[in-house]
Amino acid sequence: MSKLYFLLLELLVTTSCKVADDNGLHKQHNGLKGKHLQIVTGHFPPPIEVLRNSSGHVVGYSGMLYHHLLFLSQKLNFKYNIFPAAENTNGVKVNGTWNGIIGALQRQEADIGLAPVAISLQRYEALDFRGRIGGDWTSILVRYPLPYVSFTSTLDLFSKEVWIGFLVSAVVVAVFFIVLTSIGKRLHVTREQNSETSIATFAWYLFSTFFSQGNRIPTSQRSQKILVATWCLAVFVFVNTYNCTLTSYMSVTYQKPDINSFKDLATSTTYKANVLIGSIQEIDIQMSTNEYMKTIAARMKQCPDCRKFNTSDQALQVVKNDNYVAIMTSSGGRGNMQKHSSERGKCLLTLAKEKTTWANMFLAIPKTSPYKEEIERESLWFHAAGLREYWSVRQDKYPRQCELTYNNKGMSIKRSSNRIKLEQFYLPFMFLIAGYALSLIQFFRELLCRRRR
Predict the structure, then answer these.
(1) CATH code linked to domain 2-136+359-396
(2) Which of 198, 372, 402, 412 is placed for a possible disulfide with 255 were both Cys, Cβ 3.0 to 4.6 Å?
(3) Residue 311: is it exposed, middle or buried by C-beta count within 10 angstroms (0-12/13-18/19+)?
(4) pLDDT digits (tens, 9 = 90+) for 268-319
(5) What ranges do the domains of the chain cover?
(6) pLDDT band for position 395 (50/70/90)?
(7) pTM above 0.70, yes or no
(8) Which helix H or strand E contains 356, and what residues bound it?
(9) For domain 254-358+399-407, which architecture applies?
């Protein structure tokens, strides 16, 4: 299947990649044919990975960019020697001199920088960018949050307007009852003997009915009976609706990382953030005018252990420490989610809700390179025809259960199949227990009154 794919791609390239001149058609220029190029790279998984043995020696390379290089070498018919940069970074300018991949290109030690390089002003002055290979977001890699059942659900399951409406209706019914009682006294409405109805009696009746204590209000006024009966029906519906809704709420778990945005990171006094040395994320943080980013950048300068040379060290620091997060590309974060979920069979890392700074990424080429045209042309063909299919395979390997889906409040909600625990109904049972306690007190009070008589 892959051979057929490349044959079709080659047919497409050879039939369409031609230019016109005065004498007719001819193939586009290929100055790389028969050349032997030096390729400098770094360990930036998942786009490019440097594979090493237990002794630390390089034994191979993998990832999308490595396949990109294989495609270029086959199409442009050149050989290559690939080697990792002395410093695993795109490049940092120190005292006017670049290190890492950019330094190797400027010193003419390499012809192509095989790394996902994003453009900044300093980088643009130092090298050229060719063959757009995609782009990515800047994300925050955090510890996977433990799921929990919200104990505020007993209040949150109804909106504030519903609760206020219920309380207002209770006050209105009480006031209406008092008005009816007052009018009944003025009009000398007859009552049963020893059945004087007061607001205290009415309140006790509402309480006992609400908690199924079975009390009875002694009144002969039909208007008041209708009022109380209507109120009791409303309370009955409200209580049953509340309990049914609460049952459904208690089957939902909530997940939210402690650090879910750059604002959370800036305002936290306990969490630290690490970043890849020389990455576009580090550059953006240092150059940002956002107040939160300025705070994060200032803390990074005071943290000697917050700048790493590879994303694996970034993720490992987050796994081993409770107070670290990692700022990296989304693809790098997903790659580390996959790695650390497969080691122990459970999710240890995930990405925070907020992501920012979409960056286009390219291959790095020296300013003086005579091969820019060929690399640009064939890289675009690879991206258009082959890269999308390759990434669709890679994405399927990511542990989707570790990547949370957030709502507009930054909360990830999952429906649980676990049995609902009785202790989650603490508010209704607290009311019931209080009702039983008051009933018991009333029983002893009546018993004591009888003995005194």
Answers:
(1) 3.40.190.10
(2) 412
(3) buried
(4) 999 999 999 999 999 999 999 999 999 999 999 999 999 999 899 999 999 9
(5) 2-136+359-396, 153-249+421-452, 254-358+399-407
(6) low
(7) no
(8) strand 356-365
(9) 3-Layer(aba) Sandwich (3.40)
